[in-house]
């Protein structure tokens, strides 16, 4: 996430942050292009990204369940996107018009099954690297779940977990 965006997040006081968080529950049409809503969304997406990265750094990813319907998400994802590389994502596989046409029906299958399935979130392009401005793309929550469930099951997030373990061992012995 851009440093300027993060600096703007720090400028919200507790009351403003609470009001912005409440506003996120309203339909998008109620706001137009309200910068406070965009800032609140960015805060929420950034926090989600931090929590998730900390989770895969501290718990073996192959044992993680991200939703109550992980098995269904994974099955549907791999049936629909058999050839999609999840270790290193190509943004065109998510954002091009042909990709959007394929993702849209996939995402809609989870309406009512996955809470906030179409909320925006941040997704790492390279599963071996942390969230950063150059390694992050915007995606819907169900795209995030589908790709991260596949990464966890297919061993793509193992590098993050192993690297965190190695760092902890070095700190203990150092």
Automatic annotation (TrEMBL):
One of its GO terms (cellular component) is cytoplasm. Gene3D superfamilies: yst0336 like domain. InterPro entries: PBDC1-like_dom_sf, PBDC1_metazoa/fungi, Polysacc_synth_dom. It comes from the Eukaryota. Residues 37-161 form the Polysaccharide biosynthesis domain. This is Polysaccharide biosynthesis domain-containing protein. It comes from Zosterops borbonicus.
């Amino acid at each position: 996430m851009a440093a300027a965006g993060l600096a703007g997040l720090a400028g919200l006081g507790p009351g403003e942050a609470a009001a912005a968080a409440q506003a996120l529950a309203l339909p998008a049409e109620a706001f137009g292009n309200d910068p406070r809503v965009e800032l609140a969304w960015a805060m929420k997406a950034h926090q989600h990204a931090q929590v998730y990265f900390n989770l895969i750094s501290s718990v073996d990813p192959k044992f993680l369940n991200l939703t109550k319907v992980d098995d269904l998400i994974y099955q549907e994802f791999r049936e629909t996107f058999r050839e999609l590389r999840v270790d290193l994502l190509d943004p065109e596989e998510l954002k091009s018009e042909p990709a959007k046409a394929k993702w849209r029906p996939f995402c809609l299958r989870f309406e009512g099954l996955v809470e906030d399935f179409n909320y925006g979130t941040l997704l790492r392009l390279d599963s071996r690297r942390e969230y950063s401005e150059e390694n992050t793309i915007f995606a819907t929550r169900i795209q995030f779940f589908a790709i991260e469930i596949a990464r966890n099951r297919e061993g793509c997030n193992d590098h993050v977990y192993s690297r965190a373990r190695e760092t902890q061992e070095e700190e203990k012995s150092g």
